[in-house]
Specification:
The chain has about 525 residues and is mainly beta. The chain has two domains: about 60-160 and about 270-505, 3 Solenoid (Pectate Lyase C-like), CATH 2.160.20; about 165-265, Elongation Factor Tu (Ef-tu), domain 3, CATH 2.40.30. The chain has helices at about 1-20, 85-100, 205-210, 500-505, and strands at about 25-30, 40, 70-75, 110-115, 115-120, 125, 130-135, 140-145, 155-160, 165-170, 180-185, 195-200, 220-235, 240, 260-265, 270, 275-280, 290-310, 325-345, 355-360, 365-375, 380-385, 390-395, 395-400, 400-410, 410, 415, 420-430, 440-445, 445-450, 450-460, 465-470, 470-475, 485, 485-490. The strands form four sheets. The protein has a 25-stranded mixed sheet that branches. Strands 10-15-12-13-14-11 form a six-stranded antiparallel sheet, with no helix packed on it.
């Protein structure tokens, strides 16, 4: 009788084990569907980490579609400034609109670029005031000729860094799995619903050693993610955030000098509701020392859309790191970049590979969608140093032998959703000593229903990565002996072809962008 009980228990255990192995990492609950508001369930790792909710990205955190351009305040025609170069005339138009009062939605007005060819390049075009839109007449009507670009970057859109309120700060006292919204603190005094906060985590020597990164990383490196407090509980001294954390805060690897805390911040110095849209821009790739089309930093609730760019970015090492050989560099919050075409005629044959679209810290909640890039030996869809998610590349395509990857030092919370690079690669890897000692480049990131020639995805002792429903000719053949493979699974819930869209639907967000 005891033997029979043991066999029955063993049979039940094996059945549960097989079911767990077959359970997708994300699935649609059986009694819900995508037509109504769906309910998604998530499988966790043995440490309790799970795939995060990526829905709150892009303009207004995904809650509002990109609005129509506000009323036109200045219309600019080619040569309108009486010069063959239109740089000063465009900057003057921007300055005129920047001096106007914003409307109830925070928009000051639109600078309309008429049909024709505008010659720009004497200096950077700068937007540093909220509510200003540059709107062309269409990619087939308005052309920006930047062949004589003398500045490092053609368009600069920037505010000022956020100001930290140091008087309200509290330590994290309990391990927080990646994908969680709840943090237990040493005290919740001074925190209220609606507060903007920064979750700050400093890497400790013991954490770096656990990650096997002692040869590449140094203690004291800071990591931040911005959030809004949804609820505060005095019963267990906890707060709930609006968006999950994209990394694991493990108290076993924190100490007095290298801890994790929550502090109130103000982001008032940033600018918002700024945009570039509806034009084509070209540049001579061989012109020395210049090349970035756009740098966007300390900006929130902004967008670029319906642009066609040719031969931007160079490989000139005198650039600041965030501009190094980059076409578009985004370090903003709640930014959408969509409906873009980036084409490179001359491909780099040596030296650093150029970047097409690069996301940099302190940027987060960035959405890149419906983007096509073409060219060889380049990084097409990339993130920089230690950027915190959620950040999403959705429905993007790369033609040529190019690579999509988080590039360096523990970028977290990145989603490649329906990315197609048929002749190139998608990588979440340990870059070890490359560059400045990049080490583990990606953590708690996901490739979902992608197509590429090569797919390389690792996990590390303290962080997971997932590749789910992905199609590739070469899978993890380059990481053997270097790192452990990530969670690579060809099985998807067939009702979830796009994780990003399913999560948006589950969160009740609008279907349009």
């Amino acid at each position: 009788m005891e033997t029979l009980k043991f066999l029955l228990l063993l049979s039940s255990f094996l059945t549960l084990a097989r079911a767990d192995q077959q359970q997708p990492w994300v699935w649609l609950d059986p009694d819900s569907d995508l037509e109504q508001k769906p309910r998604l369930s998530y499988r966790s790792t043995w440490q309790g980490d799970r795939i995060m909710d990526f829905s709150a990205v892009g303009y207004r955190g995904g809650m509002d579609p990109i609005p129509p351009a506000p009323p036109v305040k200045v219309t600019l025609f080619p040569g309108g400034g009486g010069s063959s170069d239109d740089t000063e005339a465009l900057q003057a138009a921007i300055n005129t609109v920047s001096a106007m009062q914003p409307d109830e939605q925070g928009f000051r007005g639109t600078v309309k670029l008429a049909k024709g060819t505008f010659n720009l390049g004497k200096q950077s075009i700068v937007i540093n005031t909220s509510g200003v839109i540059i709107d062309g007449s269409g990619v087939d009507q308005t052309l920006i000729d930047a062949h004589s670009l003398e500045a490092q970057v053609l368009f600069r859109i920037h505010g000022n860094p956020a100001t930290t309120v140091n008087s309200t700060r509290s330590a994290v006292v309990e391990t927080v799995p990646s994908g969680s919204k709840t943090l237990r603190l040493s005290s919740v005094a001074g925190f209220s619903e609606g507060d903007q906060v920064s979750i700050t985590w400093t890497w400790s020597p013991q954490w770096i050693q656990m990650m096997n990164m002692s040869d590449y990383w140094r203690p004291g490196y800071g990591y931040k993610a911005e959030r809004i407090i949804k609820t505060v509980s005095t019963l267990d001294s906890s707060i709930q955030l609006d968006i999950p954390l994209p990394f694991r805060l493990d108290t076993n690897y924190l100490d007095d000098a290298h801890g994790a805390s929550v502090e109130k911040i103000s982001t008032a110095p940033r600018i918002g509701r700024v945009a570039l849209q509806n034009f084509k821009a070209v540049k001579n790739i061989t012109f020395p020392g210049t090349g970035c089309f756009l740098k966007m930093q300390d900006v929130e609730d902004a967008w670029i859309t319906d642009l066609e760019l040719h031969d931007f970015s160079g490989t000139i090492l005198k650039y600041p790191r965030e501009l190094l050989h980059t076409s578009i560099a985004i370090a903003g919050t709640r930014v959408t970049a969509q409906n873009l075409v980036l084409h490179r005629t001359a491909n780099a044959t040596k030296g650093p590979k150029p970047f097409d679209i690069a996301l940099h810290r302190p940027g987060q909640q960035i959405l890149v969608r419906n983007v096509t890039v073409s060219g060889n030996r380049e990084y097409s869809f990339i993130t920089g140093d230690s950027i915190a998610g959620p950040n999403v590349f959705h429905n993007c395509t790369g033609f040529g032998a190019n690579t999509a990857q988080p590039h360096m030092r523990f970028a977290t919370g990145l989603l490649y959703d329906n990315l197609r690079i048929p002749d190139g690669g998608i990588e979440m890897i340990n870059r070890r000593w490359f560059g400045s000692g990049h080490g583990i480049a990606a953590a708690f990131s996901v490739a979902w229903n992608t197509e590429s020639k090569s797919l390389q995805v690792i996990s590390s002792p303290g962080a997971a990565n997932w590749a789910l429903g992905c199609r590739a000719q070469e899978v993890n053949d380059k990481i053997q002996g270097i790192s452990e493979p990530g969670f690579v699974d060809a099985v998807l819930d067939p009702r979830i072809p796009s994780l990003f869209l399913a999560q948006r639907h589950a969160a009740g967000m609008p279907a349009v962008f």
